[in-house]
Structure formats: C-alpha cells, structure tokens
Specification:
heterodimer; A: 376 residues; alpha+beta; MetI-like fold; 4-stranded antiparallel beta sheet; 4 strands; disordered N terminus; B: 336 residues; alpha/beta; Rossmann fold; 10 helices; 12 strands; 28% helix; globular
Chain lengths: 376, 336
C-alpha cells in the first residue's frame, strides 16, 4: 500500500535507460567543430609518423651517400615526361651538372632513370619500435632506384626520412615534458587552492619567482650546463625536465583559482560533511572537475615545448647529433647558401608549423567541448 | 533514553578578517555570537532570519563544517552516549557524521556534476564502508524509491534532472546512512513554489517514518510554519525569540518577529496588508550596534535599547525572548 503511494510521487517515468557517459558527450560536441577535426587529423598523422618513422620513409635516413649530396626533391609523377600516363607512378633520377663558369653544381631531371614507385615495397631493414624486424615501407622505388620526396641533405641522407625520425624525438619530448608539467601544475595547483593558508601563499610566491625569470636565457643557461658526455637518454630526459619545469606555473595558477572557488561550493562541503578524506575530495571531486581545464592546457603545452625544443636545437644547445629532431634538422639551414641553392633543407619548418597548429586546433576544440554540462 | 537529542550552549562562530602579506587579523565577523537552544527527539525546529543573520553558519557549525570558536554542542545518540561535538577532533567527529547529516540549499551546486546520481547517493555509504557492489546498488535503489525517484534513473547525471528532483537526490544522499538528526539548510528556497510544497511534504513524511529530528533553516517564515514544532528567530548571530510555532505566529513577543510575520503574504489577494517595513539592512556583523542589536531598525526602540543589551527572558512555557519590553508591547501576529 505504502509502495503504491510512493510511486505516485515519481515525477517522470518514460523508459529510462543507460545514459551517455561524460566522454561520449564531449566527443559529440567536439565532432561538430571542423577546425578541431582538422587538428585531430594533423595530430594523428604526426603521431603515426613519430611511432613508425621507418615505415613511412623511403630511404635509410642514417645512411651516408656523398654522391647524393643536396639532391633536390623528386616529384612522383602520374604523367611522365613524354606525356604518357604511368602506372605504377614514376620518379625520375637526378642528373648533376656543373655550371662551367661558376663551378656550382646544378641538378636536373634524368630522363634515363625512371624509377617505378609502388606502395608497400621492401626496402632497407629496420625494427618496428626498435623491437620487431621488418623491411616493409609505405612506398618507395624498387631495386636500385631512389626517391627523395623532400630532397637530401649535405651528406646525401633522405630529408623526409630524417623528418620522420625527428618527429619521434620532438613529439615524444614534447609529450613527456607536458605530462610532467601537467602533473606538477595540477597537483600543486589543487593543493594550493584546497589547503590555502601559508602553503598557498608560499607556492604562489614561488610561482611568481619562476615566472619572473626571463624564459629564453634561462632555458639556454640550463641547456648549456648539461654535460656533453651524458648519454642520449639522459640528455633527452633532462631537456624534457627543463621544459616541464618552466611551463607548469600557468596551469598551477589556473587550477588553483578554480579550486579556490570550488572549495566553497556545496558539493565539496557536502563531501566534507559526509566525512570524506582530503585525498578523496581532491581526487574524486576536485580533480575530475578540473579535468577539462587540465586537458586543454595539455594540448596547449605540447606546441609550446615543440617550439622551445626547435629553438634550442636550432641554436645548437638542445638535442645533439646523432639524435635527430626537427630543431637539429633546421640547423642545417642556417647558411645563406642553403636559402640560395637548396631551400628544401628548410622543410622541417612546415612540420613544426603543422604540429603547433594541429595541437592548438585540438586544444581549442576541447576547450569548447570539455564542459558538456555547462547548460545552466 | 534522554529526550533531548541536541543541546547547543552559547555557540560562537567568529571568522577572522585578515589583511597584509602575513595575514594580520584586524577584526572578526561575528557570524554566530552566543546562541543556545535545544532540540527534542523527533522534533522539528525552524530557524528563521533574513540573509546574513548567521542561520547557515549555525547549521554548518553544528555539523562541524566549521570549527566553532566557542560554546558547546551536546549530542545525545539515544543509546547512552552524550558528547560535545564542538570539542571533537576531525577524526573523532567521523562516527557522528553518520548520525548527523545535512541537506544543502542549492540543488544545482550541491551535486558533483561529474557523478552519476548513483555515485552521489552512494558516496556516504562508500565513505563509511557500509555497503559495496550489488548491495550498494540495492541500497541506492531503495533510497531513490524512498524519496520518490525512479531507480531506473540512477545512471543519469544530475544535470538531466529538474531542481526538485535534484533536491530529492540530495535528500536521498542525506538519508543514506540512516541519520538521527538532519540539519536542512534552506532545502526549498532554491525551488519553485509548487515544488517547494512537494519537497516539504516529503521531508515531513520522512521525518515521521524514520523518526528524524530536524533543524530546518529558512529565510521565509511561511515555509517554516508548516513543518516546524518550534520556531527560533535569529537576528545578527543571536536568537531573538524562540517559541512553539503556533504561539510564535499568533502572539509574537519581539518586534523583529512581528516584522517577519507581517511579511507573509495572505492567501487572499484582496486582503489589504499593513506590512511593517524594516528600514535599512542588517547591520554589519563586524561592527555591531551597541545595546540591543535590533535597536537601529526597531520602531519601538527607546533609550535603554541603545545602551543595554537585553538578556533572554522566559515569558511563557518554552517561550524565550531577547527584548527589554517583552510582554509590554502589543504586537500583531497573523490575522485570521
């Protein structure tokens, strides 16, 4: 009898079922933004390049070949020089001549060397992710042919292959640095806002101290003191740490501000009133409610570290050979000669631009999508 | 078994105001300044007053969201344990948090938007390790039925519910640990009038069924009168009058209570009301008036009111007033 009376109080009863989770709501909103989808495509492609650089490259990027020094980019043609449709596609070899008066080398198309370009060819041997041996490549010329789609550098190494290799270092450093920066920034920010008092005061003054350093000179100084004899991995980790330590402050500030406001909202008070521990309030209530902020900041920190890394490596105080990053590749284009005669050496710039734009687009899209509950 | 579940003695809650780099305390906000009352088992005490008078602070001090600056809060669990909540440590308070629960004012901000309704209602059960797994789900489902929600909705998020439904979720969360005493902090003031009645009915039904004692905080005396056995009127951190609801409404003894009652709109729109308008705002709690705190707005104020603070006086059974002229003034209650 009482049961019956209660069901009368139920306000709406029209076939309730499982509801969409938070992430599916975010995805639905995110999908609607064209620029964010473009960003996701760029980011996905770059991450694939970074994961499987050897698969995408056509020539071995570490093999020296002095005869191919500064070969210009080769076009992959559907229509050959005789005006005939070609399938498989064709790329002509490069013919090198010397200008008789200035003795400057000139490059032309060698009609006598048409290389057939196919998909999924077997080329130089490598290991997938350093583990699984393989010799399959996405595309390339068969046999003795060569394809340098972005040209070759001064040692005759394939620039496209080197860019693929560089994307691994640059992006992994950016992502690794970002993760450290985000962990640091969000933890300290939440603590600072939640506990308040002298701890908050101390941390905020410390953040001001860090922020008041002129960033570039500090980066350069820190990067310059890394000992030259360190192994590659240590240098890599150290560089990431330097970038992380410089970039966590902004997030810490933002999160602290949000937590400061959230600390007095009723759902946090309610959790306290239930007897929830500080850890529970921080990880179950404050952290998830700051997640959108943190993710957006994450996608914006990645490009800033990509830029910083490129900048330092370009100046020669970041990543060192034999490690390859987009920044170290850019070092080769420091000369006037490059700008005058082999402009293709500057092509890593395009990838830096793409990475920065791509991650920024994703960040913008997420910023709008991350709060699907922001209706009231 | 003692009949009194809660006895508040001279409760004080002062918030320091700080300034400068080192946070030097230069003044205090005296949000609650010497408040005493007691609550009988299965009784509903209404606590009314205008915004900023310290009602919410009283509630939060009792459940120890704030650490009281002074005074005692004696809680009797009915099984022979009597304990001063105000003196307990954070850890020592934890077992009592099962018995004493709070309902929050704003159903929009009191539920974590990232939690499903199930997570919200289950949270106290999880924190106090009462149930888990299938048993937990069953408890949540029972609680939802109890407050008039369809348990099929338990995996939805709070933003998919209306204000009234959200407040029911909040009430289910409060009931989850089978508390004995509930501090309801303006549970209906954020709701539409039609929904207010539903939630009030729900609360009073639950109170009877579960044998709850309730402190019901509101700024609207007309909301309180239906549900309360007794009503306490607060002004600037102090009780000015406390009496059984019927008596308080019919025969108020404090000018402030009279003014509050005169602001209740009559059910018949044709009735002309002689509403008493209080001039100005509540004085600042940092800088309280001398003498009787209400003298700056009281239309019956005399010289003595400015000079001397009145002591609470017993003027009838369970009827206490803090006014120099209690019983001497002829004040208007509800006209029927």
């Amino acid at each position: 009898m009482r049961k019956k009376q209660r069901t009368n109080e139920i306000l709406y009863d029209n076939g309730a079922g499982e509801r969409e989770s938070y992430w599916s709501l975010v995805w639905r909103k995110y999908r609607r933004s064209g620029i964010a989808m473009l960003g996701s495509v760029i980011v996905t492609v770059l991450i694939l390049l970074a994961l499987f650089p050897e698969f995408f490259s056509t020539e071995d990027p570490v093999k020296l070949n002095m005869r191919h020094t500064y070969y210009p980019p080769q076009l992959i043609r559907l229509v050959d020089l005789d005006g005939k449709l070609r399938f498989p596609l064709v790329a002509y070899g490069v013919k090198q001549t010397l200008d008789p008066r200035t003795m400057i080398p000139k490059w032309g198309v060698d009609k006598g060397q048409p290389f057939k370009v196919r998909l999924f060819v077997h080329g130089y041997r490598y290991k997938i992710l350093g583990l699984v041996p393989c010799d399959l490549h996405l595309f390339g010329a068969n046999g003795d042919g060569y394809v340098y789609i972005l040209g070759a550098d001064k040692f005759g190494r394939d620039l496209w292959g080197r860019i693929c290799m560089g994307s691994r270092i640059t992006l992994s450093m950016a992502i690794f640095g970002t993760i450290i920066s985000i962990l640091l920034g969000s933890t300290l920010g939440i603590m600072s806002g939640y506990y308040g008092g002298w701890a908050d005061n101390l941390l905020q003054r410390f953040i001001e101290f860090v922020q008041s350093f002129p960033q570039l000179p500090l980066w350069m100084a820190l990067a310059a003191v890394i000992p030259r004899e360190w192994d590659q991995l240590s240098v890599f980790v150290m560089m990431s740490l330097i970038f992380a330590l410089m970039s966590w402050t902004l997030l810490a500030r933002e999160v602290r501000g949000k937590v400061l406001a959230m600390r007095e909202t009723e759902f946090v008070l309610a959790a306290k009133e239930m007897g929830a521990s500080d850890a529970r309030i921080i990880f179950k209530h404050l952290f998830p409610n700051n997640l959108s902020q943190i993710i957006v900041e994450l996608t914006l920190t990645v490009p800033s570290i990509v830029l910083a890394e490129s900048f330092l490596s370009f100046l020669g105080i970041g990543i060192q050979e034999p490690l390859v990053s987009w920044g170290t590749l850019m070092r080769d284009s420091q000369t006037i000669q490059t700008l005058g005669f082999h402009l293709w050496i500057t092509s890593p710039v395009i990838f830096i631009l793409l990475a920065v734009l791509g991650f920024n687009f994703v960040g913008d899209g997420l910023r709008d999508a991350a709060d699907p509950y922001s209706r009231h | 078994m003692s009949d009194t579940i809660l006895e508040v003695k001279d409760l004080k809650q002062h918030f320091p105001l700080r300034k400068g780099l080192f946070g030097k305390v230069y003044n205090y906000i005296k949000a609650v300044d010497g408040l005493s009352f007691s609550l009988t088992r299965n009784e509903v005490l209404g606590l009314v007053g205008e915004s900023g008078c310290g009602k919410t602070t009283v509630g939060r001090s009792i459940v120890r969201l704030y650490d009281p600056t002074g005074g005692e809060v004696w809680y009797d669990d009915g099984e022979g344990n009597r304990c001063d909540l105000a003196s307990l440590s954070k850890e020592g308070m934890k077992p009592y948090r099962r018995d004493i629960r709070m309902i929050f004012q704003d159903p929009f901000s009191s539920l974590n938007p990232r939690f499903t309704v199930k997570d919200v209602i289950a949270e106290p059960l999880v924190i106090h390790k009462v149930a888990k797994g299938a048993a937990l789900e069953e408890r949540v489902s029972d609680l939802m039925t109890e407050v008039g929600l369809d348990p099929n909705y338990m995996n939805r998020y709070p933003h998919e519910f209306s204000g009234g439904q959200r407040q029911r979720v909040g009430i289910a969360r409060t009931l989850a640990l089978r508390p004995k005493l509930i501090v309801a902090d303006e549970p209906v003031s954020a709701l539409d009038v039609s929904v207010q009645a539903q939630v009030l009915n729900l609360l009073s039904r639950l109170k009877d069924e579960l044998g709850l004692s309730l402190i019901f905080i509101a700024h609207d005396i007309s909301v309180v009168e239906h549900i309360s056995d007794r009503v306490a009127v607060m002004y600037l951190g102090r009780l000015v009058e406390i009496a059984p609801s019927e008596e308080l409404l019919r025969d108020p003894k404090h000018p402030y209570t009279e003014a509050l009652i005169s602001s209740i709109p009559p059910a018949d729109p044709d009735i002309k009301m002689a509403r008493i308008r209080l001039e100005g705002d509540v004085p600042s709690p940092t800088d309280q008036p001398s003498g009787c705190a209400f003298h700056s707005r009281c239309r019956y104020a005399k010289d003595i009111c400015k000079a001397e603070a009145p002591a609470p006086r017993e003027i009838g059974p369970e009827h206490r007033v803090r006014c120099h002229f209690a019983g001497e003034l002829s004040l208007r209650g509800i006209s029927d």
